[in-house]
Please model this.
Amino acid sequence: MPSRASERLRPWIGSAALHVIFIGLLAGFAVKWRTDPPPPQLAIEGSVVRYEDLPSSVKSGKPLREEVPVPPPLPVPAQPEPEARPEPKPEPKPEPKVEPKPQPDPAIEQRRVAEAQARLAVERERAEQQKALAEQQRKADAAKQQEALQRRQEQEQAAKEAKLTAEREARLRSEREAELKRALASEEEGEAFQRSGVVDEYRTLLTQTIERNWIRPPSARAGLECTLDVTQATGGTVIDVKVGACNADQAVRESIANAVYRSSPLPAPSDPRAFSRKLVIVFKPTE
Model:
């Protein structure tokens, strides 16, 4: 283990040493650049002149301003330009050592994939359960709304039917009352009409007509009396004849029914109010 750790630290130590050297070089160049160069030395040329060689004006003490020529200005030597310092080249950085990535353990990777799939299956199942619960709740709400709507429609239909029933009963009651009034009036009128003798006269007329058309069979005996239910149309045409209570045999009954058919059309009453489609005639022939 210590040798392996030293192998890992060796590149880092070398890199740190190179950085220290590079920083030292940069500091030396910076100090050299900041040092000012010495001022240039001016060169002055001169010559020695003897007194005997001086002009008389100088010896007499006169000023030599006009006689002594002004020497020309000395040329100023050009200052040397600072030497161009080469820029320091950066030291190449050592490439970091790429260590191989550790390969994952297949068993661990397989277990990780299985756990992820299990979590995904649990989440999918939970989502499906939530979806099923939401669908169930939606159906329950729809069923409640449908039930409430159906109940309201049934109540409206029941109220409508009750109203129609009440109106129908009121109409029937009104019609029954009107019919009863008409029946009472008709009955009163019929009683009055019966008392007038027109109906009795009409019945006697019918009995006499049937008796004239009756062919008396040999089995007919004295005291014959039969009740006839006769249905006639307008104009007296006989439609149907039924023999009710009768104290005679079948031959006599048939002969009486045939007599009614032979009497068709029946005679009309003297008063049209005495006409009736349904007639009840008591047939009692004279001896």
